[in-house]
């Protein structure tokens, strides 16, 4: 059974070629954690997939994600970041942003969900309105120049029910994985399986604790 949460989202309509969300690569490895592909790419120009995490307040983590749009275009595409105890998919906590094409007069609508990789499958974790508002804030998303971009703020140490262990405290070392693919109203579809594809998931080479990038005033 797939459980989902629908939330009102910040709506950004792409009118020009200049995106509203700027992913600053400065500080990667020192003040923020970054994963970009290909190596040396510009996340605001030519990265095919990437994520950047930074601590922006007490218990607050800013998440920025980018991916090349799928060809041919799909109505719903997701970018997701998984927090894992190893480098393999399975038993991972996932934060996913789904951007839907709502048509010419509405534009693109972003939504953010919490989900869990059970083995090679993914199921969304049900959050009620209050839990979702506590867990996620400042959601924005857009599609510009064939790039899907999403940004939101997430609690590092969730102040909500752990849903029988499906909601994780992220103040711990994890391998990070980023993936993109098409989505449906209540679930994400399988990501690209061809390792030679520019859309194949990217994984960190070592474990990273998001809180390790916070200065003493933000811990």
From TrEMBL:
Q: Where is the signal peptide?
A: 1-20
Query: Could you tell me which residue ranges the DOMON domain spans?
Result: 66-181
Disordered: region residues: 200-219
Record's InterPro entries?
DOMON_domain, FRRS1L
Q: Name one Pfam family in it.
A: DOMON
* One GO term (biological process): regulation of glutamate receptor signaling pathway
Entry annotated with the keyword Signal: yes
Please give the superkingdom of this protein's source.
Answer: Eukaryota
Keywords in UniProt for this one? Signal
Q: Looking at the keywords, is Signal present?
A: yes
Put simply, this protein is called DOMON domain-containing protein
